[in-house]
């Protein structure tokens, strides 16, 4: 994450919240903060783009059905863990 970003958001927190962002499930202040972060952080913007494409594909293949809350929570935990492990391995 770039230190010049105003909120100095942690990239793993941003990526973990991308699904909320894509589903319009976050408040406007959070949406703006995530937008500003991704506008200045190539790694997060790249990940957002990949996840946005995955969401479109899933929506098309699953007919817009919503995942059970337990599944959503487990996926969120796994995404956070994967981002953290990746950042440790790459030294980011």
For this entry, give a set of tags:
mainly alpha; 5 helices; disordered N terminus
Structure description:
- This protein has 92 residues and is mainly alpha-helical.
- It has one domain.
- It has five helices and no strands.
- The protein has helices at residues 11-16, 18-22, 28-40, 42-62, 69-90.
- Mean pLDDT is 76; it is low at 1-6.
Condensed summary:
With 92 residues, the chain is mostly helical. Helix content is 73%, strand content 0%.
Class by SSE composition = mainly alpha
- What can be said about the biggest beta sheet? none
Low-confidence stretches: 1-6
Q: Can you count the helices?
A: 5
Q: Please compute the radius of gyration using only Cα atoms.
A: 14 Å
Total individual domains: 1
Topology of this structure?
Layout (H helix, E strand, L loop, with lengths): L10 H6 L1 H5 L5 H13 L1 H21 L6 H22 L2
């Amino acid at each position: 994450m770039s230190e010049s970003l105003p909120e100095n958001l942690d990239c793993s927190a941003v990526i973990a919240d991308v699904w909320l962002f894509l589903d319009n499930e976050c408040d406007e202040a959070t949406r703006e903060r995530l937008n500003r972060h991704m506008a200045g952080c190539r790694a997060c913007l790249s990940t957002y783009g990949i996840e946005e494409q995955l969401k479109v594909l899933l929506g098309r293949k699953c007919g817009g059905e919503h995942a059970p809350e337990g599944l959503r929570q487990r996926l969120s935990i796994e995404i956070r863990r994967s981002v953290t492990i990746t950042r440790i391995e790459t030294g980011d």
